[in-house]
Design goal:
Layout: H1 12-31, E1 53-55, H2 62-65, H3 69-83, E2 91-97, E3 100-105, H4 107-120, E4 133-137, H5 149-167, E5 171-178, H6 184-200, H7 217-227, H8 236-261, E6 268-271, H9 272-277, H10 280-290, E7 294-297, E8 300-303, E9 314-317, H11 325-339, E10 342-347, H12 353-364, E11 372-376, E12 380-384, E13 387-388, H13 401-418, E14 426-429, H14 430-434, H15 441-458, H16 461-467, H17 478-488, H18 490-500, H19 504-523, H20 531-554
Parallel strand pairs: 4-5, 4-10, 5-6, 10-11, 12-14
Antiparallel strand pairs: 1-3, 2-3, 7-8, 8-9, 12-13
């Protein structure tokens, strides 16, 4: 995301790092007044033994100081602590190592973050609302058949991204484009008509390029039930519009039912045909014409796409006056760009060429290229163990999204569809998704939540309630601190998801929380006799349950109390 993001209210470790960074800059300015001013950046060391955070600020000073990075780092640490000795209360370790300044946050800081989670609950880390609307389109499919697995992936990615954007304070408007203005509607109508005729004459042929799937005969039967043989001898110019519209309306209704069943909601189902009927296609083309970005050649209208980085100019209106599919893109994106501060499209496989093309279109329409982002969701291979599941709409062998939901459930489907980076091909193992074992990632994460619920069932109800406000000072075990630190990452993880359009990072984070909790559970008995320690550990469990449930909810996955 290109617009500046307002940060959420700082967490205690953010404040500690900010204070350290400001003091370090003061020390650099005092010791090396000729050094250029630059922001202090922190990263997590690859080896956790070196601490929680590290900065390489000393390396940029070697030319001016004419000393080794290690000597510079040592001098800077001494100067920082001389200026702010109270930083020792926020950091358990401030150590110069091989030129880096390594920092380990004091347990009290992580205890304070855990207390914030207990206080804020599911709203922990949420960003303040901002005056910025994002138009997010995903899942859009031709209304010529049921939704299949690729829509399952784009719907999962899009819905997760929308939830993450809302967490970050954005006003998100979720859209679906119904591709009902192209030749595929005629193909659908002829395919449906063939199925209708086969009710009266089984030998009636299917169109050569028709849709042979088994989802059309029930629609054809409903037409026959209502109209009998009314259309058998009707001319094509009468039956084709009727069968095309009936097929479209029925299949779109089924698509809407499927996404609703999948837990995904839309603010707008935009019909391409409606864009034509209301003159919005014409308005989009006029916008390009007025800006001087079109020309006529061979009785056709072209967009000067090469002026905006495309490999060739694009036809907008054919010789016979019919707008092209790209003209639909012009109109639809012009509408979205007018009503949103940012437009994000999630497209299916084989659309990489659209990234630059649509960004160029945004520029031609008078917006910056950064106003529009395009995300590609790559192809999916379905397997059952070692066996690949065949899928081909043209051949009539399709696996629908409803089939996936029926077999593995919404939770596993939503989680698995998001697991890998969108640009990476995804292998979806249906057998693994049904396993009740730690090898199944969604089961592993949900089991973490259920295990916490089990702890509460075995605890005294009064103890669990008291733990919400109990002192967390007893939490000093490395496993406790590692878990508390992981919980603190939620706001930054979600922010990273939005900035990089990377919903898959939530699945990784959920698994990391579960791993850290299981480690804590095995190393630290929760229901101990020591009352203060028992309350503190129950509080950490409550905070973990909150963050785990919130993370799962962002992905549209439930957080069960038992497994």
């Amino acid at each position: 995301m290109n617009p500046t993001i307002t940060k959420p209210q700082p967490l205690p470790h953010d404040d500690a790092l900010a204070t350290f960074a400001a003091t370090l800059q003061e020390a650099i300015g005092a010791v090396y007044p000729d050094a250029p001013q630059s922001a202090i950046a922190f990263e997590a060391p690859r080896n956790p033994q070196f601490g929680d955070f590290a900065t390489n600020a000393a390396f940029s000073l070697t030319r001016i100081a004419k000393r080794s990075p290690q000597d510079i780092a040592s001098a800077l640490v001494a100067a920082v602590l001389e200026r702010r000795p109270e930083l020792r209360e926020s950091f358990a370790e401030i150590t110069p190592t091989a030129g880096f300044i390594n920092l380990r946050i004091a347990p009290a800081i992580w205890q304070a973050v855990t207390a914030r989670v207990l206080s804020d609950g599911a709203k922990f880390g949420e960003f303040a609302a901002r005056n910025m609307r994002i138009s997010l389109e995903f899942g859009s499919a031709n209304p010529t058949g049921p939704l299949v697995v690729v829509q399952g992936r784009t719907c999962s990615l899009g819905a997760t991204l929308a939830n993450a954007m809302r967490y970050c304070g954005y006003d998100v408007f979720v859209e679906w484009i119904i591709n009902d203005a192209g030749g595929q509607l005629d193909t659908l109508g002829r395919s449906l008509y063939a199925r209708y005729r086969q009710i009266f004459d089984p030998a009636f042929p299917m169109p050569e390029e028709g849709y042979p799937g088994d989802y059309l005969p029930p629609i054809a039967q409903s037409i026959a039930d209502n109209d009998a043989d009314r259309w058998v001898n009707a001319p094509e110019d009468e039956w084709l519009p009727y069968f095309s519209k009936t097929g479209r309306d029925t299949l779109v209704a089924e698509q809407r039912e499927t996404v609703q069943r999948f837990g995904v909601g839309y603010d707008l189902w935009q019909s391409e045909k409606e864009l034509h009927d209301t003159g919005k296609i014409k308005a989009g083309l006029e916008r390009l014409k007025e800006a001087g970005h079109t020309y006529e050649q061979d009785d056709a209208l072209f967009f000067k796409a090469t002026e905006f980085g495309d490999d060739k100019d694009r036809v907008l209106v054919r010789r016979d006056g019919r707008p092209t599919y790209f003209a639909n893109d012009v109109a639809y994106h012009y509408e979205k760009l007018k009503r949103a501060d940012k437009v994000v499209d999630i497209l299916g496989p084989d659309h990489h060429g659209y990234i630059g093309r649509l960004k160029g279109l945004a520029e031609a329409l008078g917006y910056s290229r950064s106003h529009l982002d395009v995300m590609i969701a790559q192809q999916i291979t379905l397997v059952r163990g070692n066996e690949i599941v065949s899928m081909s709409k043209r051949a009539g062998h399709i696996v629908t999204l409803d089939d996936i939901i029926d077999e593995v459930g919404v939770d596993a489907a939503r989680f698995f569809f998001v697991m890998l980076a969108p640009e990476s091909p995804l292998t979806f193992d249906l057998e693994l998704a049904k396993e009740q074992s730690n090898e199944n990632p969604v089961y592993y994460v949900q089991y973490g939540h259920a295990r916490i619920a089990s702890v509460f069932k075995n605890a005294d109800a009064g103890d669990v309630e008291a733990a919400r406000t109990a002192s967390l000072e007893p939490l000093t075990n490395p496993a406790e601190i590692a878990l508390a630190r992981r919980l603190a990452e939620l706001p930054r993880v979600v922010e990273n998801v939005v900035e990089n359009l990377a919903p898959h990072r939530l699945t990784r984070y959920a698994r990391d929380i579960a791993t850290d909790f299981h480690q804590f559970y095995h190393e630290c008995r929760v229901l101990v006799d020591d009352r203060n320690l028992r309350f503190a550990r129950l509080g950490l469990c409550l905070a973990t349950q909150t963050i785990l449930a919130r993370t799962l909810s962002l992905m549209g996955v439930s957080a069960p109390e038992s497994m």
